């Protein structure tokens, strides 16, 4: 008992060699994926509920396959590692996700749906967007190399593990990326704008092209240089409440989920 307490105390003082990924789904995805260069240690709750035991056991098997040390620690220790956020009794010390750079979407991609995020800054929004993209089988997500939310454990948790499983790339300049993709993609900018067409009246997608859906910053929306590279600006139709002006837009992750759901039907 004293040995276990000492191990837990040492773990609390331990600085992550990489970063602490927390949450059962995020940890399982990280261990199953190939985006992280190395893994260092798996920590599991020393007293788990029956509902949590299945995922904990799977994480421990994956850790064993990677020859990772596994240590059972207290909930206090896990809370410290996850910065008091829900860990589901599992925390993984691993290197952070790094992204490849993509200059444009190539013609060989065929008819696919891609999502480009121009300066989405909130990690919860980014995680929710990645989760929706994975759920709706988006071919890939393009992020700005600068002025975007870091790919942190918060994003991994909010994405339910999609961060480690979904194809994600970055570009140095979003306007340039869109300009170089115009010949291979129908580029649709999602915007709250009087000039935007209703989502219901979007033209049919070009059979030989991918569709690239572009979303902007949570506060300012699409930048002018980004809007100029879109073939079409589209908006989601709102309701007709007399007091609708008090809520004049949707959260960016919610708007994307609705748009992707409608595109699956198209």
TrEMBL record:
Pfam families: SpoU_methylase, SpoU_sub_bind. Signal peptide: none annotated. SUPFAM superfamilies: alpha/beta knot, L30e-like. It is found in: Mitochondrion. Keywords: Methyltransferase, Mitochondrion, rRNA processing, S-adenosyl-L-methionine, Transferase, Transit peptide. Its main location: mitochondrion. PANTHER family: RRNA METHYLTRANSFERASE 1, MITOCHONDRIAL (PTHR46103). This is rRNA methyltransferase 1, mitochondrial.
């Amino acid at each position: 008992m004293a040995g276990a307490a000492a191990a837990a105390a040492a773990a609390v003082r331990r600085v992550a060699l990489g970063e602490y990924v927390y949450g059962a789904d995020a940890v399982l995805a990280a261990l199953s994926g190939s985006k992280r260069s190395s893994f260092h240690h798996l920590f599991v709750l020393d007293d788990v509920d029956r509902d949590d035991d299945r995922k904990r056991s799977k994480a421990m098997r994956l850790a064993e396959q990677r020859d990772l040390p596994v240590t059972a620690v207290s909930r206090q220790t896990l809370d410290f590692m996850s910065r008091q956020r829900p860990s589901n009794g599992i925390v993984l010390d691993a290197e952070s996700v790094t992204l490849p750079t993509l200059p444009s979407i190539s013609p060989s991609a065929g008819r696919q749906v891609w999502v480009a995020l121009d300066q989405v800054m909130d990690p919860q929004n980014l995680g929710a967007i990645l989760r929706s993209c994975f759920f709706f089988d988006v071919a890939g997500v393009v992020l700005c190399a600068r002025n975007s939310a870091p790919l942190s454990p918060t994003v991994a948790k909010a994405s339910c593990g999609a961060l480690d499983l979904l194809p994600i790339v970055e570009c140095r300049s979003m306007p340039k990326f869109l300009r170089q993709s115009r010949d291979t993609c129908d580029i649709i900018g999602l915007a709250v704008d009087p000039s935007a067409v209703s989502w219901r009246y979007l033209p049919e997608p070009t059979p030989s092209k991918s569709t690239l859906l572009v979303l902007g910053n949570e506060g300012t929306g699409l930048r002018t240089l980004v809007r100029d590279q879109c073939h079409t600006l589209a908006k989601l139709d709102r309701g007709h409440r007399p007091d609708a002006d008090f809520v004049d837009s949707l959260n960016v992750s919610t708007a994307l989920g609705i748009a992707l759901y409608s595109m699956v039907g198209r």
